[in-house]
Structure formats: structure tokens, C-alpha cells
Amino acid sequence: MIIPSDLIVDDHKHLVSVTRARKPLIEMLQKSEGKTHLEIGSRIGASAIIASGYTESITCIDPMESLGPVPETEGVMYELKDLGIEKYFWLNMDRWGITDKVELIVALSFPFPADLEDRTWDTAFVDGIHTVEGMYQDMKSLEHRINIAMIIDDNPHNAVERFLGETDLWEQRTPMARSAVTLWRKDA
Ligand SMILES: C[S@@+](CC[C@H](N)C(=O)[O-])C[C@H]1O[C@@H](n2cnc3c(N)ncnc32)[C@H](O)[C@@H]1O
Known about the structure:
This protein has one domain: Vaccinia Virus protein VP39 (Rossmann fold), CATH 3.40.50. It is globular. The protein has helices at residues 22-32, 46-52, 74-83, 85-95, 132-142, 159-164, and strands at 7-10, 14-17, 36-40, 57-61, 102-105, 121-126, 146-153, 170-172, 180-185. By secondary structure, the protein is α/β, with parallel strands linked by helices. It is built from six helices and nine strands; from the N terminus they run E-E-H-E-H-E-H-H-E-E-H-E-H-E-E. The chain binds S-adenosylmethionine. S-adenosylmethionine is lined by residues 19, 40-43, 46-47, 61-63, 66, 68, 108-110, 127-129, 134. Residues 19, 40-43, 46-47, 61-63, 66, 68, 108-110, 127-129, 134 line the site of S-adenosylmethionine.
């Protein structure tokens, strides 16, 4: 079997694709030492699986409607087509043994889901809608809900710049790694 270099693989747990923000995501999670993590945009669960190694609980927000680009691996393609994205997400959580750590809110991130209105998290990964306006709205939603740090897959660029220009609470402390930008709360 050919394993593309951007996939992670576990001998027993099959394949999931890996976010390009993988390294900075891990760096942020390690440095922040947070216990609770929020993810906007989860798709088949690769970044949630990564985060599970560093946090106690993960909340995922994703409408789970479109398959989008999927790993070019036959087994994954067949399973995805067969199950659909939401069931495939849970299958991956099960394979990694992290179902108990993960909460999935099947919804768009904006307007912010009412069920989560009063919640806060230590860290976040923003990788949902990839428009400048959409990513900006996601950061505004998280501005007062995240305690330590968040990482943004800022593609297309400028959403982070616009957000930082309007807030006193957040700053960029790490350089951009490809298109991932890490922001820290100033008092964190
Ligand atoms: C790039 S994928 C996420 C990949 C995932 N973070 C990973 O690294 O494994 C983008 C996901 O965002 C979801 N999405 C798109 N628009 C969204 C929105 N407005 N709110 C929440 N999720 C959204 C899509 O359904 C898709 O599953």
C-alpha cells in the first residue's frame, strides 16, 4: 500500500489525513498545557486525534455535510463513501480510543452554536470555513471563549491580520508555519 507522506498511520488504526497545521498545532498544545480544546472544522477527525494526545477533552464543531477533499487512499475512500463523513469521523474516534474525550456539535460555527454559548476552552484550532470573512467571524466568536491560545489555518490570508488589528486581548507570538498562525492571549 502506498502511504502518501501527508497521512498519519497506525498499524492497527488505519489512516487519517493530517492537517498542514500539525506541527504548530502540537507546539501550541504542548506549550499551553490546556485541558480543554475546541476545534472548528473537524472533517474526518485527524486534527482531533492529534489534539487528543495533549488535552483531556475536545469539542468539535462541523456541519459534517460534504466529504471535501479526501485522502487518496482506496480504503479510506471506500469507507467514507460507504459511511458518510459523520459516521466515518466517529469510526476514527473509536479506532483511536478517544470517543469519550470527544464531543461533536453538528453545526456551522457561525452563528456560534447556542448549546455552547456559555462555554469556554483553554485552546482552539480554527480550520472550518476558509474565507476571510468566515475565519474572522470564527476568531471573533472565540475572542472571549478561549483562555490560553488558538491556532488559525489562515487560508486565504488576512483574516488573522484583520482580527489582530481590532483586539487588545490577543497577539501573534509564533511565526507563521505555512498558513498556520498561532495567537496567544496576552495574559496567558
Ligand atoms: C480543512 S477541513 C478540517 C480538517 C481538520 N481540521 C483536520 O485537520 O483534520 C474543513 C472542515 O470545515 C468544515 N466547515 C466548513 N465550513 C464550516 C463552518 N462554517 N463551521 C464549521 N465547520 C465548517 C467542513 O465541513 C470541513 O469538514
